[in-house]
Structure formats: structure tokens, C-alpha cells
Amino acid sequence: MASILIVDPSKSNRLYLRLTLEKQGYQVFEAGDGLEALESYEHHRPNLVITEIKLPVLSGADLVQRIKLLAKETFAPVFVVTNAFKPDSIQRILSVGADDFLQKPYPEELLLAKIASLLRNVNFYDDLKQSKEMVSSLHMSLALEHKSAERIFEKFVHGPRQEVPGLEAHVSPASIFNGDVFLSTITPAGNVITLLGDFTGHGLPAAIGAIPVAEVFYSMVKKGRTLKEIIFVINDKLKTILPAHIFFSCVAVKVFPKRRSVSLFNAGMQPVVMLNEASGEYALFESSSVPLGVLDSFELDVDFTKVDVTGSEHFICYTDGIVEAMDDGKEMFGVPRLVESLQTSHYDIGRLVDAAQDFCHGCVFNDDVSIIKLSLADILMQPNQMIASAVLERIPPPSDWSLNYVFSAANLRCNPHPIESIVDAIIGMQPITPYKEDIFIILSELYNNALEHGILQLDSCIKQQSNGFLAFAEAKQKRWKPYPKGV
After folding, report:
1. Three-class DSSP category at 281
2. What's residue 118's pLDDT?
3. Which of 153, 371, 466, 474 is the most buried (most CB within 10 A)?
């Protein structure tokens, strides 16, 4: 039952309203002046106040103001029913918070209709307030869950990252969770591996894939696995767990300080930029493979670009978010502006981000933005600090042993990358962990050349065509069909 407070200095007016309202089932309270009305409001907290403008002790306008202050965040409607006819009086009481007015004399039906309307608004406001409180509570719970997940994500994905000299990074997610993946560490042989990847989309759905990628990356690096092995295992893992519409574009850069060389692998990312501080020249290394998680590893062609370095080079890897930032005319920032900005800012990635934001007129980036800079001078200057203890161990003298392997087509279909197992067997026979990567590279090249160009008679020129790497993988799969019983 709704309750109504009637405030009017006229007893007859109050009596009429009381009888009218009680007939409709309302609970009614009365007050003859503004102060009495205020005390009654504090005591009873009615759902609606009906008041005159001219009141003894405390005016109608002052009463409205005080009621609104007492109500705080609660909707307390005040309905002015008055003899006043001057617009200024009515305008003033409405301006301080009165919700509706009706001039006397009035039809009873109109009075009751307005009262019913105001009370409906009270119910609507109460429902809205309750919904708001529920949403606020859910939002706080969700924020707490996000915070906890963010801590776990940060610790799991970025916790194992080692400090690498010459490595600078800018990472700015477009939402709470980052769909970009940045991993970096030092191998047992003292080489630097950095991986920058970009899952389709951004936010939590994209970020979930970062956990298995980080797990595979750090665990396999610690065991001395090669970068090629790591890429195949990441691809297998993602192909198994990711839905069809999500894939993982990535760039892997491996620096060999002792050899003074760099190996790059680009799978569906923007071109890696190499800037030479000594000559002022630059080079772009385009994608040479489809993104990970799309093809089976048997179909995936992992080719590394090898670059000899002098120490004056800077390698810049970045995700789509920076080059696809748009100005008001929908023009992208693009790779040429990125290169120009780096050259004019002395390779400062912070100033590169500023330049992109200026280009967008200060707009927030619509996608995750990650930029990695590897300065070779800093890495090559400190090779001794980066050489793991395994490199410094004394290599045992060679022993007398031999290994023989025979592969059938069925074997290779079950295990399309047997070199990993072969190298493991060699290391088991002769502990030469510091040279494991070298052995793997040599045997992989021999095996791939023998299989692809010797047995399957594939031509490398296929890769130079449009969609060449996909065409090469399809041709490789097709050539397997004539070998059902073995090779």
C-alpha cells in the first residue's frame, strides 16, 4: 500500500484529499505547515508528498529542497497542488525539485491520474536502482575475477621472461587482456630468442592462447630445443585447441652472438624491419609462412631467413595495431611511416608510438599494439654474460657409437619431423648440449633436402609464386600419395 503525505494549511483541503485518497486505498498522513511536514516525512518516509506552495513556518519551495536532500539517492516525488496562479511561484518550486503540479480547482480524475503516474515512477526508479546495484555488484565481482586472471596470466606468460640486453618493448592492450604475445629468453647455448605473436582479435578469447604458447616456448628453450622444434610444437598445440576462426601470426627472431648472425621466421605478421645505424639503410623481411594453428605441422613450411650482422643493426617487430591505426580519413599509418618515424627519432619506439597517435589525432588504438626492438650492439657487446653454464662445461671426449635409422612413409606420416628424436638420441649417446642447435640445423637441412627435392622432386621455385608456400605444402602432400608402403 502506497503512503502519501498531504501538506496544506487548510484543514478542509486536507480533509478532502484524505477522503479521496483513502477511498483509493492509499495510507494518508497530514501536516499543516512546512516544518511539521518535514518532521512527518522524516518519521514516515511516505512514497509521495502533495504540498501547497504557500505554507506557514517553512515555504513549499524550501520544503521541496529539504525533502530532496533527505531522500539522497531515493526518488521522493513531490506533487504541487496549489491555489497559486502566478507563473513565477510555480516555476520556482519546479526549479528546486518538484516533480509535477496541478492548479486548483481540478477534476478529481486528473488528480488521481497524476498521483498514479508519479507512484509508477517511484516503482520504476526502485526497480532501476535495484538493477543498478545488482549490475554494480556483478561488475565488482567480474573486475575482481579479471584482476585475479590478469595476475595469473602475467605471471604465467611473462614471469619466465629473462632480462635481455638490447631489448626494448612497448605493449598496450586494447582491452584488459592482450591478444599479443611477447616472449623472450636466453637459450642454454647463450643465444637470444624473441617471439612476438598476434592472435586473431583481442581481449580474453585471443589471450587464452598465449598460455599454451608460453608454456611450450619456455619449457622447450630450457631443454635446449631448437627454434624450429619449438615452432612445430606450438603449431601442433594451437591446431588442436584453437577454434577454426582463431589463428596465431608470429615472428621469431634468434640472435647468435658468437656467430654474429640472426635467424628470422615470419608467419603471417607485418614485415620485420632491420635498420642499420651505420649505413642508414633498412631492409624488410616479409612473411614466409601461413600463421600457426592453420595447417598440420606436416604441411607447414618453416624457412628461416639468415642475416649476418655487424652490431649496428636494430630489428623491429610489431603487431598490426600500430600500422593499421587510422586517421580521420581512414588512411592507415602504414609501414613506410613506421620506418620513417624510427629513422627520424633515432630508433626510439616511444616516439614511434607518439607519432602514430599524432597521426590518429590522439585517438585510442583500436587493436593491441606491441613493438619490440632488438639492438644488436648491446647484445653482441655482452656475449660472455649470456653464455649459459652448459657452454662452459668441458665437452667429454668422443666415444665409439653409431646410430642407424630407416624411415617408411607410414613412419613419416606419424612423425613428420623425426630429426628432433634423432638429435635427442645423439645427445643421449654423446653429451654435447652446446652444439645441439648446430646438429639439428645440419641434419634438418639434409633431411628436408633429401625428402623434398630428392624423393618428392619438389621445386623450390614454387615458393616464389603467389601463395607459394601454401602451394608448396599442397604439392608436398600430393607427392606423398604414390608412397603407401614406404620410402
Report:
1. coil
2. 92
3. 371
Q: What is the pLDDT of residue 425?
A: 84
The string of DSSP codes covering 14-36 is HHHHHHHHHHTT-EEEEESSHHH
What Rg do the C-alpha atoms of the chain give, in angstroms? 37
- Separation of alpha carbons 187 and 189, rounded Å: 5
Coil, helix or strand for 317? strand
Q: Grid coordinates standing for 297? A: 605441422
| CATH domain 3-129 topology | Rossmann fold (3.40.50)
Contacts of 409 (CB under 8 A, 6+ apart): 480, 483, 484, 485, 486, 487
Domain definitions of the chain by residue range = 3-129, 160-388, 393-480
What do you get for the CA distance between the two ends of the chain, in Å? 90
For β-strands 313-318 and 272-276, DSSP reports them as antiparallel
Nearest to 223 by CA among 388, 4, 447: 388
Count of other CB atoms within 10 angstroms of residue 95: 10
pLDDT tens digits for range 108-124: 999 999 999 999 998 88
Grid coordinates representing 81 are 497542488
* CB-based burial label for 163 (10 Å; 0-12, 13-18, 19+): exposed
Render pLDDT for 195-253 as a digit per residue (tens, 0 to 9): 999 888 666 666 677 888 988 998 888 877 888 889 999 999 999 988 888 899 999 99
Write out pLDDT tens, residues 337-390.
999 999 999 899 999 999 998 888 877 677 788 899 999 998 887 655 544 444
